[in-house]
Each structure stands twice: as C-alpha cells, then as structure tokens.
C-alpha cells in the first residue's frame, strides 16, 4: 500500500511540474514578438553541456514594455522602412556630422572658391595621371626614328662589320686573320667585288648572312640564307664561317632599322631572307615582322606569296588573325584592280562554307568599290556592286554591321554624281537609334558629306556639326575657367578632344556651301580651321591637326567664292575714281544721287543678320583689307566697321580671294620660323587649287582681260614656286574654254568677244599639245583601271572631253566661222566614232553567290560611255549653218551634221536596248556550263573505254559512233 501511495504522489508531482513548465513557455512566447529561431543548421557539439535542461530561457520581461502581438502579413511588411529611407537617414546623419564644425552661413564667394579649388585639383590629378612613365630600354626601342637616325645606325653597322674601307674591292675573305679578331679598320668580313655597287643594306645583309653560316654546314654553294633564291643575296657566293659568332653582334635596334630598310623599299623577299638570317643569329621570332612582309606583298598584289606566308603561320601553330585575312582580300584587289569580283568571290565562298570573313575584310572591299584610289576610279556600277555586297552580307553573315561599315556606306551616299541623302539618313538613324552605336568624328563626317551633296540638305549638315561641337565642348569644358587667372581663356584655343572636327568634316561642309554659294559659312569654316591648325601645332596629345590646312579645303573655299552671288550688283554700283571719293556721309543734301544709291544698298542689319554668329577675326588678319582700292563706292566712315562682314560685291570677293591666294604663296615660300605661325605653310600646290582660284575671276571679274591677267600671273607664280612641277591640266583648259565660249552668268559682252576668241584659240592649241603628251603617258599604263583613274585626274575623262571640244566648236560658231567648227566636229567624229559606243559595251558584273541584291541591272546608270554629241549640244552650229550665204555648202554641211548626230543617237539607242535586254549577261556562265559538260562527257567516254577493254573493236567503234551522233 505504501509503495503505491508514494508512486501516485511522484506521478502527481511530475505532472504538476510539467504543466507549470508549459505554462511558463506559453507566456514567454506570447510576451516576445520575435521567438527564438530553431538553429537546425548548426553542427552538433562534441563538448559536454555546461547547462542543464532547458537550454533556452525566455528573455526577462521589462515592466514598462507593453505586450503587443504583431502578425506577419502584408500590412506589417509595408510598414517596415525601405532601403532608400534607411540610406537617406544615414546620409542625413552623416551630413549633420560633417556640418557640426562649419559656420552657420557660407557666402557665395566662399562656395565658388571651394568648387574652383576642387576642380583645379581634379585637373592637376588627371594631368599627372596622363603622363607616361619612362619605360625600359626595350620599350624605348619602339620609339620612331627619323631618317637621319636610321642612316647613322646603318653607317655604324656597316663600319663595324665591313670596316671603314668597305667600298674597296677585294676578291675574297681575309682568311689569314685570327679568329674573333678584326684587323683594325678592316672590319669583321670582306665582301666580293660584286657587292661594291649594291645598296648599303644589301651589303650589311650579305655580311650578316656569311657570318651566320654554321661551321658544320657545307662551305660551297648555299642557295641563300633561307635555302631559296628569293633574297637579293641568293645568287651571291657563300663563304665559310671564319669565327665563332659572339652573342649580341647586332643590337635589337640595328636589326629593326635593317629590317625597316627592306620594308621601306618594298623588298618583301629580301626582308623574308633577312628573317632567316636573324633566326640563325638567335634573334627571337617576332610575328609583327612577318605581318609587315605580308602587307608589302598584299599592296603589290602578290596573292600566292600572301597565301604561302599565311599558311606557314597556320602550320606553325600560331593563330591566323583577322588582319591576315584582310591582307589576303586586299591582295586580290591589288592583283586585278579592274576585277574586284575576284575578292568578292572569296567572301561569298567563305559564306557558303559557314566560315565568313570578318567585317573588316568586307570593309576593305566596300571602301575599294566606293572611294577612288590611285589604282581604281569608282563609277555607278562599282557603287551598285558595293550595295549588293552590303545587303548580301547582312542577310548571310552579319545582320548588325560594325561602325566602320556604316561609315563607308553612309559616305558613299555623298557622291556628287549620285547623291542619296535619304538613304544616308536612314542608315544614320539605324546606326544611332536601332543599333545604339555612339558616332565618332568619322561617322559625323560621313553623314555631313551625304547631306552636303545637295543644295537643299546642306543646312542639316550644319545642324549635325553643332551636335559634334556640343560633344567637343562637353569634353573640354571646365567650370570657372574664364574667371581663373591660372586657367585663362587663351588656353581654350589649344584644347582638343576626340570629338573635334577634322579637315574631312570641314571639306564635306564646303561641298554644301559651294553648291549654295553660302560665303558666310565658308569664311567661318576657314576661320575655325586656322584656329584648329594652330591648336594642332601646339598640342602634343592630338595629331589630327598636325599637318595644318590642306589644298582641298582651300579649293572648297575658292569655289564658294565663285558660286556666291553678290548682294550688290555690278550694274547698280556707281563707279568713281579714288580722287572723287570724299569723306562725306551718304545722307548729305549735296549728293542726292548718293542718297538714292545708299537706299538701294541693303543695310547692315539686313545683309549680315545671318552672319552675326560668325567670327572671322582670324580671316581679317590673314587677308588684309584693301577697301581703298575697290572700284565700288564705299562710305569711308563705315567701311572700317563693316570689314568683318562678308563681301557685298564681286570686287570684294575678288579682293579677298586674291589676298588669300597670295598669302598662301607667301606662307609656302617663307623661311621656316618656329616662333611664327604660318597657317598655309603645309599646303601642297596643285592644278585643282589653282583652278579653283581662277574660277573666282572667271565668275566675278568685270572683264575677260582681268581674268586672263589673273590666269597668267597665277600660273607663273605657281610655276616659279614649284620649279615647273605643277602645270595646267585638262580641267584648267576646260575652264578657260568654257569661259571664252559662254562668258559669265549674263553671257559674253561685246567688248570681250575679240579677246575671248584670241585667248580661246591659244588655249585650244595648248590643249592639243598637252593632250599628245598626256596620252603617251597613259599608253604606258597597262592596267585598265589605273588608266581610267589617271585619265580622270588629268581631265581626260569622257565627259570632260565632250565639254572641251564642245566649247571650241561653239567658240568658232560664235565668231561666224561655222565651217571651222564643222572641221573640228569631223575630227571629233574620227577620234571618237559612234561605233565605240557599242564596242565598249560590257555586261554588268554579276555574282551568282549573292542571295539578295539591292539594285537591278536596269537601274544602274551607264559608266563607260565614250564621248558623243546630240542635237542640243550643236544647236548653235546648226543655226549658223542655216545662215550661210552659199546654200549648196550649207546643205552639204547640214547633211554632215545630221549624219554625225544621227549616228551617235542610233548607237546610244541600241546600247540602251542591249542593257535592258541583258545582252551578254549570262555569256560567261553559259560558257562555264559548256566547258563542264565537255569535261564530264570526256570522263564518261574514258570510263567506257576501260570497261570495254576486252570487247570487240567493232563494238567499241559502234559505241563511239553512237556517242558522236548524240553530240551532233
């Protein structure tokens, strides 16, 4: 009984203790908002427990804290502070901490000073970080050496190897000399007599080749250092090595200079042989040297050598870079300049194999087809082929072109013969908006050229220029620059950035100004280029404007002067002598005529309202004002204040153009002085620049005699400055003949007819003599593409020849000599017969691998049409023949004229029909199909002969007869 009673009491006590523990746990969990987590991720502890059960006790409840239950729901989560609010609170605390020791009020001057010092510290840090540290001696070897330094290095190397008397002739090596020693000034080796007249780098190469021959090699005839006869020393006699070659006989700098000597002379095989010699001397292999050799071969059009060297690089385990593929494509273009389809077939064949060439290879071909080079003159057919290649590339290989490809195709839209500003605008939007490619100065220059190709779109080109200048301003802008003494405003003139416009940008802008005659903007462009040229001379970081202003930019300026229409017409301005011009206001009552004249002239606000933003103070310093010599009436009281504005009359335009031209001549002929800036010092004189200057007189001169005087003086000056290297070309004669036959905008005046006829006949005779010399030079050129490019540069293109002969025919007709005009026309008919129109017809290039084309054969304009005349070209001659007194002669000459014109028209019409029908387009493909059929048929016949080897001769002959009948 007692045991059972004790057991029941124990159980009762245990249950009571358990209930109390559970009650305490519920209270602790309800009193805290964050229950204790269950740490199930912790590893079990091997140490003995330090506390008894229970391990977790509830936190002590504070008396003042009310017990509140927060449920975990959406409203509770939204009431929690966000990361932004927490960050904002931390910033506020930090700001209060920083501002504890600052005064209560800070003035604007103190804040300005603080920010100015902060900006200056940033400028100084960026300047110091841009300074490059001095590298190791090996890095210093990569610095470019000038011509004199390279020559000195070769001289020292020649003296060390061959001695000071290396030019003396000796028959063999001085083998009696002790090994590893030199005989004073005799050098290390003596060459044979065959090398006495060789260039210096050949002598050094031959000496190093002999010294590099190992002792255990056969001493007699080696073909050359590389085992071939490709090197310039391949046929030279080889000698035994007479010494143990010490390491470092030639330094790395000397090896580089010797290798550059071969590369500069375009001697790829000599440079390749030198690499073999360098390998024997223990010089480490440099892949850049092999690439330099491949570049020489590619520019020369040696496809086999480029392929061989590229294959050797691939076989040696090196990676074939994209640059090697580009050079291989370039070699195809240079091998056959008139057949770019060979390079295109390489690109399309790689596309079919699934391994397309890189986009840089496409850019080489597209640039070749759209931009004229020394060996290729672009035309409408080449540009159409470029667009087809570009479209096919986007379909098969690269749907997203690179920035360079966009640049090339946008630039091709600015061709003067085929302007396409709309297509250029679409590509620009696609590149900048769809592809989000950030345009650089090159891309801006390309779109500016495309928009400047038409008169109505050139103002949009200036809007894009403003965008480029804003980027340039943001790049170089420094706050408080003008108010700081150390960062004065003069420093802004010398600041350049990666967004600064280059010369190509301004030349493209001048294409628009000369089409619209916008002289204000042309003068502003000249002013800005002078400033940028000065900045480029003084800047050490940017090399964009190092060469100064070029001739193309000045040609555009002169052409703008020529196309500009004067605001004050010559017939309205009253001409007086210098003595009659008095210092009197125009509103004086004593001269009512001058008051009327002043009323006719536009006021300063009306004329120059658009030019207020133009800054041409540099132009005024270049071109000195000579208003006192002007024939137009000017008010002396206002002439000085108006000097910074654009010219008002033709006389002002001639004055500025003349001053600009002779300032350029003075800069070219001036003695170089580092302390004096000459903006036109680096201008290269050429026929295009002189012709542009003469065009100003041809348009604005009051008489033809003044134009002739300016023409003679300009060419005499250029002939003297260039020592006879620059002479008139076909463009020069064409310009003068058109001036003599057509006159100014208003025609030829009666006073100029006599001098126009005399001067025109003289220029025509000079043109005929010059043409004979030019044609002899053109006949020496074998490649047709090079010849076409040279003809265009000479001014002997098909359309230029038409205009020149047309001008002289018109000149004789104007002077009532239509029979002489007919004689010249018959000479033209014999030199350029109508049958040439059909003989020179060529089918358009078709690439069969193109899966898509952008152009059609019928939409491509003809490009190689020889000179011809239609009736409208000879209408004046027809009128003069009708007025002849001798009717029989008139009828006879009219019949000749009709026959000549009809012959040209008939052949042109027939050629047009051929083009629309596609005559000859599939001739080449059909020829290839016939050849393939013949080859396959001959193979089948050979197999049949082998199969009937044991058969009867009658059966074999019968089978052959059957085959022959099938062929027939």
UniProtKB/TrEMBL annotation:
Please name the source species. Kwoniella dendrophila CBS 6074
**What is the name of this protein?**
Pentatricopeptide repeat domain-containing protein
* Cellular compartments per GO CC: mitochondrion
Composition bias of kind Basic and acidic residues appears in: 923-932
Q: Where is the composition biased (Low complexity)?
A: 164-174
Q: Which biological process terms from the Gene Ontology are attached to this UniProt entry?
A: mitochondrial gene expression
InterPro entries listed in its UniProt record = TPR-like_helical_dom_sf
Q: Which domain of life is it from?
A: Eukaryota
Q: Which Gene3D superfamilies match?
A: Tetratricopeptide repeat domain (1.25.40.10)
Write out the GO MF terms. Answer: mRNA binding
